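Sequence in, structure out. First:
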Amino acid sequence: MELKFRVQNPHMTPSATRATVNGKEMTVSVEAFEVDLVSESPMNGGLKLRFIGDEVEGAKNMFQNDAIVTATLAGYQEKPRA
């Protein structure tokens, strides 16, 4: 299934994530690229996506304000645990 979204409000913002600092895992604040995807269909809602680290540049290139992007949804079935 494919859904179309309009890109809205792409921006950089502080975001919390887990990281290892001096050998200890903790919550840290990092700069993230955040974007809202608003469905082109009135029947669907929207999504908020955040990208950090080396994902930021690719996301900035893909998610330009007012651009239309297509999301492909596919079924996924987790394998039973042994």
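Second:
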Amino acid sequence: MTELSPSAQTVLDAANMVFSQAGTTAQGIAAALRAAADQAAPELPHSELGDPEILKGIWGERRACRAELLAIATELEGFND
């Protein structure tokens, strides 16, 4: 494989930026997780009252996935390796 998808490249760029700035491994992984969260589960608006139930469920799952990724990133940012 010679070229990454735009999403994968965004995650790689985030990690490389932190590592090149003398960041720790945990900081680089945290940056990559934040970039992955932005690519895979972008922040979405909350459901509207008239939205179909399936759409509300999908948005809720995306928000939960994003929150879990960001929680791991936050934990790693506080870790000194």
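Remark: Helices lie at 6-20, 25-40, 53-77.
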